[in-house]
């Protein structure tokens, strides 16, 4: 078990170092930080002094080591556009993105799991076929198309829900939430649905595949032979054994939702990290771009590492395979 933990931790550190190198290359070679930070009246001496103060005259490896050290401490410098600390900007935007991802995840589970059970139990029915076709459409449509269609229907045509913005928020310490206000909850509905469509189809298809396999097992046949109601067999006994892969998928997809929420946030003008990243790309705000890349990668790595550790704890065969592979390499 110790060898497995060491290997997975080393892999996670290696991935983060590789991402840090990519972020550093973007930071170092895409645009001149000095030209972006000084005003037009700055003299050449002012530029040279700022370049020396930022350490841009040092060697490549020295600058990379300094970048990794500062990144590990949460220091990505000052935003060129906002003239604020980058981590302060991300800290202000993270609650909006997290709440959007949380709502999208809840919607995907609440909708996707029952649909997956229905399509598995009634797999030859017309309803199941319609849901299967809808899932193919849902997994194929880009999220920005879904968002625009939702805005046209529920905001422009019906006027039921807001088309953009986060609504009113409440500050709890440094955390801002819209879940405690009516307008904040209303503002979450459309972007939450748009972001969850792809996830709904994935959960539905996964639950369907797992249910079809579970319904063929002996214990389900035995439960039916005992006269247990079909609804109880399906929704209690069979479904319970299908949830582990769903939980795993959901945990790993949270990183994807955070990373790809930038499209949804742009469509709905949602003030989250994705919107901040799009603005950073527009204005070539390199420190914000590098920090966003590092933060999203860290979320991916942490979630995947937690899943690996959980699997190793649940299934000892993974630990044994790792130990045998290590012994063979030795």
From TrEMBL:
SUPFAM superfamilies: MetI-like. It holds the Pfam family BPD_transp_1_N. It is found in: Cell membrane. Residues 94-307 form the ABC transmembrane type-1 domain. Keywords: Cell membrane, Membrane, Transmembrane, Transmembrane helix, Transport. InterPro entries: BPD_transp_1_N (IPR045621), MetI-like (IPR000515), MetI-like_sf (IPR035906). Belongs to the binding-protein-dependent transport system permease family. This is ABC transporter permease. It comes from Seohaeicola zhoushanensis.
């Amino acid at each position: 078990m110790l060898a497995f933990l060491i290997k997975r931790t080393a892999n996670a550190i290696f991935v983060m170092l590789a991402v840090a190198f990519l972020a550093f290359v973007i930071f170092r070679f895409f645009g001149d930080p000095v030209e972006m930070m000084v005003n037009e009246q700055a003299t050449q001496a002012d530029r040279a002094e700022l370049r020396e103060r930022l350490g841009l005259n040092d060697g490549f490896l020295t600058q990379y080591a300094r970048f990794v050290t500062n990144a590990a401490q949460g220091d990505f410098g000052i935003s060129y556009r906002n003239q604020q600390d980058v981590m302060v900007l991300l800290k202000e935007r993270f609650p909006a993105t997290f709440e959007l991802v949380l709502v999208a995840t809840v919607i995907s589970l609440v909708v996707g799991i029952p649909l997956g059970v229905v399509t598995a139990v009634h797999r030859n029915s017309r309803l199941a076929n319609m849901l299967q076709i809808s899932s193919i459409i849902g997994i194929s449509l880009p999220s920005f198309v879904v968002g625009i269609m939702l805005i046209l229907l529920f905001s422009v045509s019906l006027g039921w829900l807001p088309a953009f913005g986060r609504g009113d928020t409440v500050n709890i310490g440094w955390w801002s939430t819209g879940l405690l206000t009516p307008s904040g909850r209303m503002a979450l509905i459309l972007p939450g649905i748009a972001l969850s469509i792809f996830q709904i189809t994935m959960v539905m298809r996964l639950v369907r595949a797992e249910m079809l396999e579970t319904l063929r097992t002996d214990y389900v046949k035995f439960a039916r032979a005992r006269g247990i109601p079909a609804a109880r067999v399906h929704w209690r006994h069979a479904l319970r054994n299908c949830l582990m892969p769903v939980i795993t998928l959901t945990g790993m997809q949270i990183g994807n939702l955070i990373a790809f929420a930038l499209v949804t946030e742009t469509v709905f003008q949602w003030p989250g990290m994705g919107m901040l990243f799009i603005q950073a790309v527009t204005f070539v705000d390199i420190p914000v771009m590098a920090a966003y890349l590092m933060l999203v990668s860290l979320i991916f790595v942490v979630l995947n590492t937690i899943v690996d550790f959980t699997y190793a704890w649940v299934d000892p065969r993974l630990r044994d395979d790792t130990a045998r592979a290590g012994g063979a390499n030795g």
